[in-house]
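Colleagues,

Please find the record for the two-part complex below.
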Amino acid sequence: NAGVTQTPKFQVLKTGQSMTLQCAQDMNHNSMYWYRQDPGMGLRLIYYSASEGTTDKGEVPNGYNVSRLNKREFSLRLESAAPSQTSVYFCASSEVLAGGLIGEQFFGPGTRLTVL
Amino acid sequence: GDSVTQMEGPVTLSEEAFLTINCTYTATGYPSLFWYVQYPGEGLQLLLKATKADDKGSNKGFEATYRKETTSFHLEKGSVQVSDSAVYFCALMGTDKLIFGTGTRLQVFP
């Protein structure tokens, strides 16, 4: 049981390049999330997927796209990277409890992205 | 909308000191509340939670009590260790997602 896995762990891009961050969970969770973490800003939600086949914008979606490939996998794509997207990116998943409430979130180890 | 406010850090303590990290929230109703911890170079992990008013969550010597009168969920530990140095996040359960505070860095020195 690996929990939430993310690839790659580190990435350096040049401005304008594209890349996809991969995330997978093996806990059979319905909900998955992408956050970015910047110094002094805490965690900010980029996109989330409440269930397979659905995605919704979070607090800071501009410049990103997501794909919920199946129940296990949720990818984040940067089409044209900008220096402002230098950050640490975390994927998370959670089960959905009765009444639609969210249970404990489990986080991956993070991807450290630098855009030059 | 729902929000979480945490005290700004860093909080710097000597080993065996008493710790309090303040957290207050604004929400409709009485959502579940959480404390997450992030150790250097790692993702967040759940430290403790409380699902209703007056509940006390506890884990690894840390405690937090859900106080609806003061809309607070302060984190406490009686005697901190160097290994407790980390960033601590307070969060509340929203619809579809958790709402996090900005985090408080704790530094414990020997």
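Chain A has a mean pLDDT of 92.

Comments are welcome before we finalize the supplementary table.
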